[in-house]
Specification:
Residues 66-166, 168-268 form the SRCR domain. Disulfide bonds join 91-155, 104-165, 135-145, 193-257, 206-267, 237-247. This is SRCR domain-containing protein. Pfam families: SRCR (PF00530). By secondary structure, the protein is an alpha+beta fold. It has 3 domains: 8-63; 66-165, Mac-2 Binding Protein, CATH 3.10.250.10; 168-268, Mac-2 Binding Protein (Roll). The chain has helices spanning 3-63, 97-107, 199-209, and strands at residues 66-70, 76-83, 86-90, 113-116, 128-130, 162-165, 168-172, 178-185, 188-192, 214-218, 229-232, 264-268. The longest helix has 61 residues, at 3-63. The protein starts with a helix and ends with a strand.
Amino acid sequence: MTKTTTTMTKTMTKTMTKTMTKTMTKTMTKTMTMTMTKMKMTMTMTIKMEMKMKMTMMIIIIIFTVRLVEGTFSHEGRVEIYHAGEWGTICHDGWDDNHASVICRQLGHSNVGRATSSANFGEGSGPIWLDGMSCSGLESNIYHCDRLEWGNHDCGHNEDAGVSCGTVRLVGGTLPREGRLEIYHDGAWGTICDDFWDDKDASVACRHLGYGDNGIGLQGAKFGAGSYSIWLDNVDCSGSEEHIEDCKSNDWGENNCEHNEDAGVSCNS
């Protein structure tokens, strides 16, 4: 082999070695980068799943530490709260619709609640856990409201707080069981037109409100005219429905009425 041939062979060997080394380095770097990216993605997905599971568990715990007891329907009753391994009640001092709305929201019933007091749903028998509640009404659960320390109260069980969760209310009546019927929809209260409004419709509204099964339907804005949207018209209930929204009617907001036609209700015991 000549000197020239030997030199060429060495040069080609060096070139091939250098090229192969670069190629292998690039391939390994690319493979390692892809592997690390996949690992990061897997770790991120795992962390997100763990966070979702923790949040779900927190939501479940929050929901199942509050309950409504002794109501006729699942959306009403005496409020009981679970603490230190035992169910107890809440004193009605300062208890209002803001507090009730927070309880209803926490339980997943609605964003609107009506407060009841003086053990309207019967007296509890366990501890009185909370007193001096102060909610704005926007909280997601009762634990975010201001209050006295657990078990610190000056109440008896004849002052147990209650809640009726729903989307209807009576306004303008002399008694709590009567008034202009207003319904909550799309973030706002509104009225119901009195077209075809009768005692069957009123009885469903009374049942919805927890005032029994017998109601009298009143027409012509008997309890004054409302000032917001007229949400429902041509309501037609059979009388057996639990909620006024279960009855037949026009679509929400579809009406040919004025507020001098707002429907009213008088509930009999």
